[in-house]
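Q: What would this chain look like folded?
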Amino acid sequence: MTFSPQTQPESLHPAPQRRDARAASLVRRLKGRSIVLVGIMGSGKTSVGRRLAARLGLDFVDADAAIETAARMTIAEIFKRHGETFFRDREHHVIARLISEGQKVLATGGGAFMREDTRKKIGECGLSIWLKADHDVLMRRVRKRSNRPLLHTEDPEATMQKLIDERYPIYALADYTIHSGDGPHDIVVEHILLELERSLPPGTGEAHMHALAPSTMAAPAAVTKVPVELGARRYDILIGPHLVEEAGQYIAKLFPGSACTVVTDRNVAERHLPSLEAGLDGAGIRHTRCIVEPGEASKSYEVFAQVCDSIIEARMERRDLVVALGGGVIGDLAGFAAASVRRGMRFVQIPTTLLSQVDSSVGGKTGINSPHGKNLIGAFHQPSLVLADTGALATLPTREFRAGYAEVAKYGLIDNPHFFSWLEQNWRGVFGAGPELIHAIATSCASKAAVVIRDETEQGVRALLNLGHTFGHALEALNHFDGTRLVHGEAVAIGMACAFRFSHKLGICPRDEMDRAIGHLAAVGLPTRIKAIQGWSHGAKAILDSMYQDKKVERGALTFILVKGIGKSFVAKNIRGEDVLAFLEEDLAL
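A: My prediction, written as structure tokens:
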């Protein structure tokens, strides 16, 4: 925001909100240091800074606004009258003063961090966070305002790219890098809070904090909450123990008077259905059950029809609920039934596997398989609530947990290299069900939520979530979805390894990045080669043919998610089939 010369100084310091337990913990762990947001114009420093300060109960100051108030003229006027050198000197002195005046959240101008003496002063008194945004996002934002003196050129887009090329290597020196995309600024704030929780040393005697973003529904202190902000279709992801038995309480509070049909499989029903039904009884919720066979084979036309008929026979109405209790197969199947019966019912996801907790239960993708390929029949239908019970993971076979971890690692490999580094150091704690597990699930869910908010129906950036899936789905289809030989997470792990090797073969991914990514997958026990699939006998041509049934094929052209390194994935369209075939032949021969 640009302040006019008449703005009073006190308006730069809005009264901070009262701190909740999570905010109080983080402020203590900051030990008096300020949070300083850096980044290019349009990266969202002011908007994110205000929200972050409110969440932490700290003062917020915009350095540019403080300069304008002191100078009694706008930034553009200072540039015009005195030049950029004068402005940068004044900017340095104002930032040095502000950061020395006490703990706060401070948003700096785009060029401030370029000065070494300013970076040094920030490093002495604060933590620097770079809000990194892509060129197209920045241009969409800055076009809304005319007060950007550096962009008053004949070709603003070329000027912006030049600034990116010059400044991004310096911004990368900041203590943290957080992606600032097209989604709501609250998601960026949540990523900042998660990163600070991950990296700041705990205070003396301080327990691990689990309370996440505020929401319309209260949650117990031991439950982590990640919001998915989709306007009228917003919902919460709750993460923590005992959520299966407490589901009735949450459902009754959110949907008073509603009945539900619980869709689950035979194995999950034995372990968890009694606890869920007891909770539903205790909350006074009428409920019926629909139990199917476990495994990918249940994502079929026949079983889908059985589930739909079961819901209808139970006299469930449109405003009643379908509850999906189980892994990804059940979530996809029940969600598609909810999207279809009476042209759309509400549904609740209660994922009981790590893979479904961090991936399939979030984002509204539902569907069944065709003999021609995986998930080719379905709909986008958002859940009304996701309850990720970490206690349910205790009954998960090691192989299934490890397969789910592939999807956790995926979020680091897509666009979060800091999270991937954290996983390299802390994966044993994740597997050991320590506090690292909740952090890994919450970070994964927040990452997926941020992408879903930006691209709900996979028209663009959401396709990045399919890293490894073009390869993986082809392998699953050729394996006839036989979970005894290959489960989905294993297929994704092999697919991601293939994506890194293919990217390296194309000359776009350095070998050390490829080796590091594949090495971590192998270190946790995941397969990384196609030949690791038990009884595999198909050749490169069969794999390529199966890929052409992938949902991302456009006008017969293959689309892949490729990588320039860890955390640097991108959508690659019109990949030549002969290049893929050559890679597969070479990869199968190793």
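The domain at 224-396 is CATH 3.40.50.1970 (Rossmann fold).
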